[in-house]
């Protein structure tokens, strides 16, 4: 009768669709786990093909390749060393399933399929997969393992069924994207409840890394049957931990191990932006990034994020002054680039502005100068930066925050141009908090310099697009503290104008912001991707029609 068990949790990154490389990485992890005398090495949800695969799983060639690689992984377990629990896509009776395979003694000894398919927010698994039946436990070396998959533990039915069927340990593999305070929700709101409800301990394994607009924070853990935390893996880092389990008179439990501190706010947001940008650039094969450094806070923090993600030597900042650019902004941009340690070029755009003025003179005759000329400056900057990207290869990073994107305070084909936006889901007030935090801390995953990276004046001066004399953002928008409060209500919580007025906001202001939010939808549809931070990011979480006339006022 087995009295001890060693389970290695591999909190790892993966590349969607790079099936051979993912399999090779798992074999290497198995070799390392063998040296720890592990019995079972576990990988995150769908780790063989990468998660989320989206419509790639509809490609028969991908299904075939995944099946061949799974057989190769299974054959590898003929040699001494641990068994493997591997997530992938499976076909049964013509239907696709999100599932796991237990590989041992050179073969696939068991498969289990995900029962609860999430179909909300960033998830649309019900569109791609068929739900598996309520899964039964798997007998592994004398121990009954319950194998719920991610969403399966967010509802009580699967864990209760497994416990009633004799499960002694839950091993739950996940692809759970980062979201503010989600680490607490996973442990306190879900895993502890399932463990206490059933009396069965749980090893919860999550992946780490960026995939398009999602960042996975890892933060895997083990909960014993009494609800106590036995192990806490770090967030935002790849790590392999071998957990030791013993059978006592009250059943199985995990011997307590290291409890790593998880990132507090806003460190967690900053790390999500770093990981999202890093993996987007690296997995898509860019040599680095280029961005317009204006002397303002948004571009400054994007430059800092890029340096922490890629290293300062892969960051190219470009100052693109017009006649409205202040000497203060020029100085602040130069100091910021110096603090970060990245390259800075200066390309004045006045010659291009003069060229457009001459080119449009006849058609613009007798017309007043207005926002058209302001937007033209932004578009000239976008064209210039894209030219540098095309010529030399770095990806253009765009720097608009969520407050601006919400109300359309951004120029399409201008400052919205780019391949990726780290701030897409960060409100302006969040940008200020993150900048203050970064000046006082170097993130544990950061490749940038320690110490201050953003000049203090950049943080404290009134924000301005500098597209006309003495321009300030608050000429067109409410103060950001007010604007962000309104937007949190309208976007994250779907509140009406009346509800927000009841909370103390001015009716005319809320009505105007709601209108701006809706009419800017067409811009957001054409915006580059950016990492999800909150509960409702634009794109995957919040899918509004461009054309509609609903207003809650």
From TrEMBL:
Binding-site residues, L-glutamine: 120, 176, 182
Catalysed reaction, written as an equation: deamido-NAD(+) + L-glutamine + ATP + H2O = L-glutamate + AMP + diphosphate + NAD(+) + H(+)
Pfam family, one: NAD_synthase
Active site: 45 (proton acceptor), 114 (for glutaminase activity), 150 (nucleophile)
SUPFAM superfamilies the UniProt entry points to: Adenine nucleotide alpha hydrolases-like, Carbon-nitrogen hydrolase
Molecular function (Gene Ontology), one example: ATP binding
Pathway(s) the chain acts in: Cofactor biosynthesis; NAD(+) biosynthesis; NAD(+) from deamido-NAD(+) (L-Gln route): step 1/1
Protein name as it appears in the record: Glutamine-dependent NAD(+) synthetase
The organism of origin for this protein: Croceicoccus ponticola
Lineage: Bacteria, Pseudomonadati, Pseudomonadota, Alphaproteobacteria, Sphingomonadales
């Amino acid at each position: 009768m087995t009295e001890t068990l060693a389970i290695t949790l591999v909190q790892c990154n993966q590349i969607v669709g790079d099936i051979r490389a993912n399999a090779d990485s798992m074999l290497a992890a198995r070799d390392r786990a063998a040296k720890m005398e592990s019995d079972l090495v576990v990988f995150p949800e769908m780790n063989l093909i990468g998660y989320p695969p989206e419509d790639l799983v509809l490609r028969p060639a991908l299904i075939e390749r995944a099946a061949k690689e799974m057989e190769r992984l299974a054959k590898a377990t003929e040699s001494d060393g641990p068994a493997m629990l591997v997530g992938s896509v499976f076909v049964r009776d013509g239907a696709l399933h999100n599932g796991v395979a237990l590989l041992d003694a050179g073969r696939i000894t068991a498969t289990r399929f995900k029962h609860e398919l999430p179909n909300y927010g960033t998830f649309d698994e019900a569109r791609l997969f068929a739900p598996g039946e309520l899964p039964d436990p798997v007998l592994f070396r004398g121990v009954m393992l319950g194998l719920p998959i991610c969403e399966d533990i967010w509802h009580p039915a699967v864990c209760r069924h497994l416990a009633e069927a004799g499960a002694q340990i839950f091993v739950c593999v996940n692809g759970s994207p980062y979201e503010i305070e989600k680490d607490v929700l996973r442990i306190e709101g879900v895993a502890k409840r399932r463990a206490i409800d059933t009396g069965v301990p749980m090893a919860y394994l999550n992946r780490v890394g960026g995939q398009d607009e999602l960042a996975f924070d890892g933060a895997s853990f083990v909960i014993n049957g009494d609800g106590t935390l036995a192990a806490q893996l770090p967030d935002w880092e790849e790590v392999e931990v071998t957990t030791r389990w013993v059978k006592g008179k009250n059943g199985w439990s995990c011997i307590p191990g290291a409890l790593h501190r998880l990132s507090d706010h806003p460190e967690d947001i900053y790390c999500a932006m770093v990981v999202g940008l890093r993996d987007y650039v690296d997995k898509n094969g860019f040599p680095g990034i280029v961005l317009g450094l204006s002397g303002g806070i948004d571009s400054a923090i994007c430059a800092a994020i890029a340096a922490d993600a890629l290293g300062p030597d892969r960051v190219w900042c470009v100052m693109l002054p017009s006649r409205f650019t202040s000497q203060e902004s020029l100085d602040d941009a130069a100091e910021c680039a110096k603090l970060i340690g990245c390259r800075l070029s200066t390309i004045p755009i006045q010659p291009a502005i003069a060229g457009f003025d001459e080119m449009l003179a006849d058609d613009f005759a007798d017309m007043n100068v207005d926002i058209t000329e302001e937007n033209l400056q932004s578009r000239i900057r976008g064209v210039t930066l894209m030219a540098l990207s095309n010529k030399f290869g770095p990806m253009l990073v765009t720097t608009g925050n969520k407050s601006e994107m919400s109300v359309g305070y951004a120029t399409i084909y201008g400052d919205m141009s780019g391949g990726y936006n780290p701030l897409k889901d960060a409100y302006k007030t969040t940008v200020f908090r993150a900048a203050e935090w970064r000046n006082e801390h170097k993130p544990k995953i950061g490749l940038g310099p320690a110490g201050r990276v953003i000049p203090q004046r950049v943080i404290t001066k009134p924000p301005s697009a500098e597209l006309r004399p003495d321009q300030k953002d608050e000429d067109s928008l409410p103060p950001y503290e007010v604007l962000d409060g309104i937007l949190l209500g309208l976007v994250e919580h779907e509140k009406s104008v009346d509800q927000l007025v009841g909370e103390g906001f001015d009716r005319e202001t809320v009505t105007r912001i709601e209108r701006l939010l809706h009419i800017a939808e067409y811009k957001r549809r054409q915006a580059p991707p950016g990492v999800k931070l909150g509960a409702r990011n634009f794109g995957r979480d919040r899918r509004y029609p461009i054309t509609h006339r609903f207003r809650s006022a």
